[in-house]
Amino acid sequence: MSRDLVIGVDCSTTASKAVVWDVQGKAIATGRRTYGLDHVRSGWVEQNAPDWWQATSGAIAEAVKAVGADRIAAIAVTHQRETFVCLDAAGNPIRPAITWMDIRATAEVDAYGTEEVHRITGKPPNPTPAWYKLLWLRKHEPETIARTAHVVDVAGYLIQKLTGEWATSWACADPLGLVDLQRFDYDDKLLEKAGLDRSKVSKLLPPGAVAGPVLPEIASELGLPLGLPVVVGAGDGQSAGLGCNVTRPGRAYLNIGTGTVSGVYAESYSHAMAYRTMGGPVPGTYIFETFIGGGTQNIVWFVEQLAGIDAKTLKPGETPEQVLERMAADVPEGAGQLLCLPYWTGAMTPYWDGHARGAFVGLSGLHGKGHMYRAILEAIALEERLLTTGVESATGRVLDEIVLLGGGARSPLWCQIIANVLGRTVRLAREQESTALGAGIHAAAAAGLFPGLRDAADAMTGVSKSFTPDPKSHDRYSGIFEAYRSIYPGLKTTFRLISEKTP
Length: 503
Fold this sequence. Notes:
By secondary structure, this protein is of the alpha+beta class. The chain has a domain at 5-244: ATPase, nucleotide binding domain (Nucleotidyltransferase, domain 5, 2-Layer Sandwich). It contains 18 helices and 24 strands. It has a 7-stranded mixed beta sheet with strand order 18-19-17-16-22-23-24. Strands 3-2-1-6-15-14 form a 6-stranded mixed beta sheet. The protein is globular and about 65 Å long. The N and C termini lie far apart (64 Å).
């Protein structure tokens, strides 16, 4: 039997998925395991790093069992970005991992977030890159840095478990904020400032490279074939772009997940406040990316904390989100003059303000659950309009096509709102697990199932349903957008005062 299948592993913020793909990009089998987040205090979000491996190994074993090992040609890993863990010489965590959602390092951003750091890394000053959190650790937990033998991203942690090699790709490590993106190599001065050197970070490989064969004992444990190539992919945002075939100019992906990420393809390096520059999933290329620190997590928060949907009232198979979506569909554009600012974890592009927070503006006694739910959906769409037009202005290129994916794209109402707000047709990715598919594409190309990476992406991706904007709705949203984009500038000082003056 020929080896004609690959595994794409997506170790994301709250779960690890292993998807077995065929060469047409069809999911043949899936394994999934979840794990938790620890909200230590406001703005501090940590995780137990060993949970990544426990979930990933379980997911891989489940997926392989469904198809058998003989057909698996390679396995590749994508992961939640910026999240990192400090390990001792034995590879054990010294402290909990600090996640991408953590914004504790605002003082370090203010002190060290220079234009030079932005130029080197492509990352405007903000608390998300790990570099600022490493600076925080050096100041507040110097014993952690002193004991650290390895600082690894999530992919680097999993690659070491699978192969025994301390390796990752530059498109995985780049979001940590330690990589010179024009050279695709670590910047020694940034390492030194964080109290590190090259001996304490993973070897950098091109995205799509083979890190090594799976360890024999791991192959036996997980049911994988001996000698299976383990491939380093890219961070989950870039991998989602690959899974949507954003491998040429003019196309963008919009991933509505826990956070909302959009990216466009670029062949040459540049940096700007309107976007953050990431190493592309195609070696030597770039992704200009915008990021909203909100998305489905805002919906989950509303459902769990405020919606008050009694489970006893739900029909069989019905979810609270479906109930709220029906309510929101009956509310007109603008949610009855209620606007929402979706900065639950701070403002990313284009403001880069770790002090910013979410807000509802215009609340009155007339507003109910449906209004608030719709306001959250509209907030992400309005923020995306702000970001998309900003990237187009900075790059001088209008996007030809936007492909939607992620959990939020399962909502027809949300997709239509996005089309109406942006005033352009948006298309659903044929495969909603596009992040794991991106890893599968890396695996398929590395295994030699296609002549090259773009050939693999062309063969394994596609689009399905389209959402066309309603001109009248777009006109109404254009007026709402004028009000929306005034909210953050008006509250910027208030957010900082809340951060500095209140316990």
